[in-house]
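User: quick one, fold this
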Amino acid sequence: MIPARNEGTRLRQAVQTVRQAGLRDLIVVVNGCQDHTRDVAASLQDGRLTLLHFDEALGVDIPRAVGAAYAYRKGAEHVLFYDGDLIGPHRDELGKLIDSARRFSLDLALTDPYGTAHGLDVAREPLLALRRDLARRLGLEGRLGLSNPAHGPHIVSRALLRHIPLDFLAKPPLVLAYAARAGLHLDALARIPHARLGSAHKGPEHYAKIRETIIGDHLEAFCYLDGRPRSRRLHSRLFDGYDSERRFDLLARFARSLTRT
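Assistant:
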């Protein structure tokens, strides 16, 4: 599934990359757009692309939960999460990720955007340290390194979607924590260096807020693992980022509509 908000100039390439990597049935979740993204998505519909449109912006990662819920309802065995702004040359690596998820029956197949070359950055970058610490807490550091559903294309299985709370799908580190705690099969078997993802540059303010969002999501994941009420606070600081803009109300309404149909 592909979330898209104001990605009219990039969405066509993102869809093409996913299809060239081996997938044909696609879900595009267009939301809160002020450009021609919806028109581009509609022009790509060919019987195997489903367009889900929301006039309001759903907020960061809510579209992935929407798309996953819809795909599960339609009987999907695996769901690929792929951002609508990715236009980098990584078709082959994406194909490897898709093939690996199928071949090894993975419940969570991750992409490694860092490799080992960035190991020294972990001590200086709190976000990378949190990713490392979460994998270490789960006993998966050797297997996953810094791979995390918060960064890069990844795939979840129907088995994972069957039981995971829907709101967890809107906070990627919680997906990792849930999958590992449930004893599901997960691994990082594809590498796409960050520079080759080809994501859009949206400015320093967006970068700072998305970083804070992901830090807060990791803090919630640790709370979940500890059995504590989920919190985004660390040393009295609240890491909100874009979290308060996430429309869980619209996600719940969409889920109810699927149940009714």
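User: anything notable?
Assistant: The chain has one domain: 2-116+140-201+249-260.
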